[in-house]
Sequence to fold (278 residues):
Amino acid sequence: MDMVTFRENTEDVYAGIEFEAGTDAAAKVRTFIEDEMDVTDATHDGPVGLAFKPISEFATKRLVRKAIDYAIEHDRDTVTLVHKGNIMKYTEGAFRDWGYEVAREEYDDTVITEDTLWEERDGEQPDDAVVVNDRIADNMLQQLLTRTESYDVLATPNLNGDYLSDAAGGQIGGLGIAPGANFGDGLCLAEPVHGSAPKYTGQDKVNPTAMILSGTLLFDYMGWDDAATLVRTAVGEAIANRRVTYDLHRQLEDAEKLATSAFADVVTGHVEQLAQAE
Fold:
């Protein structure tokens, strides 16, 4: 698997616009929806929790631009818009439509849609073009398992991206080796996909690979391509030699189980060897 997920991280249900069941606020929102918007069959009788799902043109197009730019700069073949637009037509359906608008209106010379690829080129992709397509989110989760090699860069709303990135992380050995970064206009915050794990504090046990590789994403952002490649290669050497932390040790035969600090020392050693060889 060699896949990059671009996940919008300011909108969707993660915006946190929620109203607890049984509260006056929830009752007011429900009354407004039913009376003012003439929606009378959206919920069952009794207390109900409510949440809003904002998906904006601005944030969607900003995300898709980043995904397409990345695909072009890193010689990737496809960008896949992942959505549930078949059900949520005015939110995730809009995400899909705005994504295609960006591709057609701003990248006409470098991007081709999957429909055009088959209608005009019988599926033969030009060497210098990025193909933009879309997949329904639940189908995409299946495709991750059965057609992994067919996907390259994913662009998703917030919730879909959460599911997909964790599922992809599981396929490569777990979230302990899944890096992440938050990219803005002029800012980058790199962090592992897995978040914090307080119960392991001070145990010198957990896999630092996700943190190390998140650092390489920061190097990429800064334009330090050689440094990023060097560290990634060093991590790969350590894993290929089966010198790993406990989470990968239980998945590999004849592997040596290392503490966090010992694994970091092994990676550092490979960095030094690779740097000297250049």
Observations:
- The longest strand covers residues 130-136.
- The CA atoms of residues 37 and 208 lie 51 Å apart.
- The chain has three domains: 1-17+52-171, 18-51, 173-278.
- The domain at 1-17+52-171 is CATH 3.40.718.10 (Isopropylmalate Dehydrogenase).
